[in-house]
């Protein structure tokens, strides 16, 4: 933990100096900084996982809470999404890992179809029934569209990164290529790789 | 949690990148790519589709969520790590480019329609507050990608003229 302290104590008096040595490429300090950042990130993952609902801040009980213990949220406003498995009455299944809960959705203005994804905001009542104030219905195929088009975005970025940037193993940094690599170059590189391997 | 489609975010990052390149000479195609990466970064939260946080909770016996990746605090840490992995003299610029991209993403997603009318914990861990959302569109809508794509295309053709 002495490494962490050196960063903390160094921040006040010597921030200029520290920044300068970061800029000069002090690899050890860089590695320590990255490790400290990763530890903070891990801490955030755990912290976020332990947060409770806070309706006054717009964070309502959801799938996590209702699947675990529906009864203790009766009478409260909840916001939860699931898959419609029956339409008369409307019943949706809400998942949390291997565990699920079936909720009856009452007072719904719209008419979802089986398989639709339903997000509701309403009051949790007796017998696993949610009395809806507002709901959003999405046909399942729309998710296929969303993931498909997201993949297009990811591939676009990927091609640009490979074409314009390279990882310098010696300096452990990403650098801009002096000569950008065209898609044709990438393909021929891929082919050569196959041939030799 | 609500997420817009990734392509819309990448179009927005691309558009802002080109416009910044008109003003700043140092911003060229590779730097525009950095902006696009920034605009995609908060969707790293989709790692949950591969590594189920509930399985992680059960395995280690501690609470766990990938949620911070789609909040201001988490994304700033990822960006700091990313910019430390670039050439030191450029890392400040890369940090700023990634941050502009990522903030555009978080802002756009805070406009998504939700059932409760509140978005998500945009500024966490600084505050847990979920700002009310104007509810402009759904992540599964087709229009956002179409509109942002058309804007990106027109900016690109303007860029070619210059």
Structural overview:
The complex is a heterodimer of chains A (197) and B (162). By secondary structure, chain A is α+β, with helices and mostly antiparallel strands. Chain A has 3 domains: 2-49; 55-139, Nucleic acid-binding proteins (OB fold (Dihydrolipoamide Acetyltransferase, E2P)); 142-196, no CATH class. Chain A has helices at 2-11, 15-23, 27-49, 63-69, 141-164, 183-196; strands spanning 77-87, 90-96, 99-106, 117-125, 129-138, 165-168, 173-176. In chain A, the strands form 2 sheets. A 5-stranded mixed β-barrel of chain A has the order 1-2-3-5-4. In chain A, strands 6-7 form a two-stranded antiparallel ribbon. In chain A, β4 and β5 form a beta hairpin. The longest helix of chain A is centred in the C-terminal third of the chain and has 24 residues, at 141-164. Chain A is flat and about 65 Å long. The two termini of chain A are 44 Å apart. The relative contact order of chain A is 0.07. The model of chain A is unreliable at 1-8 (pLDDT under 50). Helices cover 57% and strands 0% of the residues of chain B. Chain B is globular, with a radius of gyration of 17 Å. Chain B has helices at residues 6-23, 29-40, 53-60, 72-84, 88-109, 143-161. Chain B starts with 5 loop residues before the first helix and ends with a helix. In chain B, α1 (6-23) crosses α5 (88-109). Chain B has one domain (6-161). With 162 residues, chain B is mainly α. Chains A and B meet through α3, β1, β4, β5 and α5 of A and α1, α2, α3, α4 and α5 of B.
